[in-house]
Amino acid sequence: MTVDLHPSYLVGQHLSTYDFDLPPELIAQFPLAERTQSRLLHVTDSVMEDLVFTDVKKLLREGDLLVMNNTRVIKARLRGHRASGGIIEAMVERVTGPNTAIALMRASNSPKAGAVVFFEAADGRKCEACVTGRQGQFFELSFVEPVLDVLEAVGKTPLPPYITREADEKDIARYQTVYAEHPGAVAAPTAGLHFSRELLDELRAMGIEETFVTLHVGAGTFQPVREENLENHTMHSEWFEIDEATAEAVNRAKREGRRVVSVGSTSLRALESASVAPGVVAAGPMDTRLFIAPGYRFNIIDVMITNFHLPKSTLVMLVSAILGRERIMQTYRHAIDARYRFFSYGDACFFEVPDAVKAR
After folding, report:
1. In angstroms, rounded to a whole number, what is the distance separating the alpha carbons of residues 13 and 305?
2. CB 193 within 8 A of CB 345
């Protein structure tokens, strides 16, 4: 499926118009004691309503289809040394095979192809890898043992760069959705962190359906936009898969006039990237570089549940495509004034997509 990397609706749009002042103390450094304790800001064209996350039961309707991302966060942060003794830090970006991965690496001297490195855990266990080449800024690594086994044994939870503390034991469970299944992400699909098993059970009992996509979130999600003219920015690539059962569930909901509710930007990007016509998605594995900003017309989603995002980020541009830049800036000003918690461990929004921005 071909994606236009520089769609025409980006022409004339500027990065600086998506900026806002965020007090640093509103960046959540720790999760709340309970997942569902988060606040929820409900926003439409005409409504701005302060709620708690369990109020999602009031906002969802019988027959709604929740689409969630069941990727599992891997312990992608590695530390170790070269065979020659130099210190190495690595952040796995993507697992490319049973024993291979690509990673960002930081060292006093950039390792060359053929260099042997040893990654180690606090208990002294070591795992060996060899640098086999480069893909742009990423290093290709070949491990002696299976990659996922290595990461589980010696890796650390890869908290986002705006969380300024070291990951601890609690993050292993809390920086993971309760429905995480397929390992491969280096960042959590954070809108899903608000759902507990009990809340999902209650929603099912209300007649709300659920289905899953798998999109392995990469470290590229944190890369800043450096182009003032947005038409010059190229989105990072992310792999995802929609299976036949999910495609049929989504297509059936659209045929029957039921709402498709995207839990997070990753589920949204997967659904919209897989759309082959308004109301229709195709199944299969794909890569997406879809850049959603005001002017985009939504083929699939009717509601989005999401966290609050970074200033000047592509995710702020994405939610601005739903309700318009001015309305989103109003929303964020309200959230700051009302002391909502921001980013991965922060609070959530419930956005209803107006008919005016849906494809026909």
Report:
1. 25
2. yes
Chain CA centroid to CA 349, Å: 15
How far apart, in whole angstroms, are the C-alpha atoms of residue 168 and residue 112? 32
For residue 298, give both structure tokens. Answer: 């939504």
- Burial label for 352, CB within 10 Å (0-12, 13-18, 19+), is middle
pTM (predicted TM-score): 0.94
Q: pLDDT digit of tens for each residue in the chain (360 aa)?
A: 556 678 999 999 999 999 999 999 999 999 999 999 999 999 999 999 999 999 999 999 999 999 999 999 999 999 999 888 889 999 999 999 999 999 999 988 889 999 999 998 877 788 999 999 999 889 999 999 999 999 999 999 999 999 999 999 999 999 999 999 999 999 999 999 999 999 999 999 999 999 999 999 987 677 789 999 999 998 888 889 999 999 999 999 999 999 999 999 999 999 999 999 999 999 999 999 999 999 999 999 999 999 999 999 999 999 999 999 999 999 999 999 999 999 999 999 999 999 999 998
Looking only at the bridges linking them, the beta strands covering 182-185 and 71-73 are parallel
Domain architecture of the chain: domains with CATH: 8-73+173-357 (3.40.1780.10), 77-154 (2.40.10)
Q: Residue 296 has what DSSP assignment?
A: B
- 10 contacts 293 by C-beta, under 8 angstroms: yes
- Do the Cβ atoms of 344 and 193 come closer than 8 Å? yes
The encoded tokens of residue 354 equal: 């107006």
d(CA 260, CA 210): 10
Which amino acid appears at position 140 of this protein? E
Distance CA 229, CA 223 (A): 16
Cα end-to-end distance, the chain, whole Å:
20
Note the residue count of the chain: 360
Q: Are 103 and 158 in contact (CB under 8 A)?
A: no
Q: Are 27 and 343 in contact (CB under 8 A)?
A: yes
Rounded to whole angstroms, the Cα distance separating 52 from 350 reads 11
Residues in a beta bridge with 82: 117
